[in-house]
UniProtKB/TrEMBL annotation:
Organism name: Methanoculleus formosensis
Keyword field contains S-adenosyl-L-methionine: yes
The name this protein goes by in its record: SAM-dependent methyltransferase
Stated family: Belongs to the tRNA methyltransferase O family.
GO biological process, one term: methylation
UniProt KW Methyltransferase keyword: yes
Pfam families assigned to the protein according to its UniProt record, in alphabetical order: TrmO_N
Location of the TsaA-like domain: 8-132
InterPro entries, A to Z: TrmO-like_N, UPF0066_cons_site, YaeB-like, YaeB-like_sf, YaeB_N_sf
Keywords tagged on the record: Methyltransferase, S-adenosyl-L-methionine, Transferase
Residue ranges crossing the lipid bilayer per the database entry: none
Stored PROSITE patterns: TSAA_1, TSAA_2
GO molecular function: methyltransferase activity
């Protein structure tokens, strides 16, 4: 087993606002936003800091996290931030970019206010989109495209409490 350790430092932070979210990029990383203009979506890697505790990092199996899913499922088969390393990934639409201020306004991101952002990448259909992807039967009724999520009742799909 590899015993290396890594140091990960945030490049920014998520701000939850009333109608949208703002990703604020730290000053020294703002030059990295150059060229992001023109991309409609970005991939945001963020740290699930609220679940960065030994008990959550030790979780490998979840008990029925999805209402129509199996009774138990491995964390690697979920998008939960409760996992050995609480790294989460979100693809989000960009609705505003200010490279000088170091901000990216996004319609929605499934991160909490003050969540640390680890990295930002442009969404590239040539590498992120997969034709004929297959999912288990218990999740096959989920939206197939990001744009269809707005009308989908995601709350009914999960067993966790709000």
């Amino acid at each position: 087993m590899d015993t290396r350790t890594f140091t990960v430092k945030p490049v920014g932070i998520v701000h939850a606002e009333s109608e949208s979210f703002l990703i604020e990029v730290a000053g020294r990383f703002r030059p990295a936003l150059q060229g992001l203009e023109g991309f409609s979506h970005i991939v945001v890697l963020w740290w699930g800091d609220r679940v960065d505790i030994p008990e959550c990092r030790g979780e490998t199996v979840c008990k029925k996290p999805y209402t129509k899913g199996p009774e138990t499922i491995g964390v690697f088969a979920t998008r939960s931030p409760v996992r050995p390393n609480p790294i989460a990934l979100s693809v989000v639409p960009v609705i505003g970019l200010d490279t000088t201020a170091g901000t990216i306004r996004v319609a929605y991101i499934d991160a909490d206010d003050a969540t640390p952002v680890l990295d930002i990448k442009p969404y590239l259909p040539a590498t992120e989109r997969v034709r004929d992807a297959v999912v288990p039967a218990w999740s096959s009724h989920w939206s197939q495209w990001y744009e269809e999520n707005e009308g989908f009742d995601w709350a009914a799909e999960f067993t966790f409490e709000k």
